[in-house]
Structures are given as C-alpha cells and as structure tokens.
Amino acid sequence: MVNDPNWRLPEVPAFSLTSPEVRDGDILPRWARASGMGGEDRSPTLHWSGQPRGTKSFALTVYDPDAPTGSGYWHWAVYNIPGDASALPQDAGNPAAGLLPAGAITLPNESREERFEGAAPPAGHGEHRYVFTLSALGVERLDLPARCTPAVLGFSLRTVILARAQLTTLSETPA
C-alpha cells in the first residue's frame, strides 16, 4: 500500500503548480537535496495559475509520505502567502535570502527549523516522493500558534481551502 498524502483531505478543485527546474514525476535537482546529502537545501522556483476567484491567500507544504517514520516527513510549510502572489523564486525557503512575500510565515519543519529542508531519503530505501502542495484559501490570514507544526497547518486548512495544486517530485539515495 502506498501512503496517499491526500487521503481524507477535503475534495476541492485543482489548479496548476509548476517549476522550471523540475517537472511533475521527475527527480529533484541535486541542489534541492539536504546539505548533509550533497545538496544545498534550496527550494525550487514555483509558479501557479488557475486558482479560483475569491482566493485571498495561499499555504504551501512540502511533504515526503515515504519517509520511514509512520507519519511521513514535513520539509517545508509556509502560510499567509498573499492571494495576489503567483510564484516563489528559487531558494525562497532560505530565510536568510529574504525571498518570501511580506507577511508569509514559515513553520518549523521536522528538524524544527523554519526553512526548506532538502530531500534526504535513507540510503537504499528507494525513491521517495516530495509532494509540493499549494492550497488556495478563502481567508487573508490564518492565525496559528507560533511554531506550530505543519500538521496543525494542514488541519487548519480544512474549513478555508478553495482549491489545491500539487507538484510531486522524486529523490533517492543509492545504497
């Protein structure tokens, strides 16, 4: 059985999420791997379009449902991205770069760092999926507890989500 990251999420319309550096189903670039795995922890450029009218903000998560944890692994979570935004530049997940739109809030990832953490599947574990999910929301802001988890963010989206866009990428560490 494959862990479906959308299992039991609200069914909503889809819109488009793309990247010029990696296509849906392709291997993440080496620079998008974790620094401890030969990468640079750089998030890819993301573009989106087709979100519904009434979108007032966005939330973005990056999740590895294949991590051998029983609960997957959250690599990045950002919310309160303004509703008029249509892209995030490469390395927006690096807080030192200052590339996120004003007002956007990054939550701690599984390593409890407020940044994008690159792909790092265990050696010999096979391909892992990295699911970039952008949710279009019908509210301008979410008021969440400081440093809450990406799972809490996901739960908070249930009543305000209008549409969802996804880009699934892959990474593997040979044995």
What class, by secondary structure content? Answer: mainly beta
State the helix count: 1
The count of β-strands is 8
**Percent of residues in β-strands:** 25-35%
Distance between the termini: 23 Å
- Main beta-sheet annotation: 5 strands, antiparallel
Strands ordered across the widest β-sheet: 6-4-3-7-8
Instruction: Compute the average pLDDT.
Output: 96
Fraction of residues in H or I helices: under 10%
What Rg is obtained from the alpha carbons, in whole angstroms?
15 Å
Order of helices and strands: EEEEEEEHE
Query: What low-confidence regions span 5 or more consecutive residues with pLDDT below 50?
Result: none
Give the SSE map:
Blueprint: E1 16-18, E2 46-49, E3 57-64, E4 73-82, E5 87-88, E6 105-106, E7 128-137, H1 150-157, E8 161-171
Antiparallel strand pairs: 1-2, 2-5, 3-4, 3-7, 4-6, 7-8
Q: Quick recap of the structure?
A:
The chain has 1 helix and 8 strands.
Written overview of the protein:
With 175 residues, this protein is mainly β. It is built from one helix and eight strands; from the N terminus they run E-E-E-E-E-E-E-H-E. The chain has a five-stranded antiparallel beta sheet with strand order 6-4-3-7-8, covered by helices on one side. Strands 1-2-5 form a three-stranded antiparallel beta sheet, with no helix packed on it. A hairpin with an 8-residue loop joins strand 3 and strand 4.
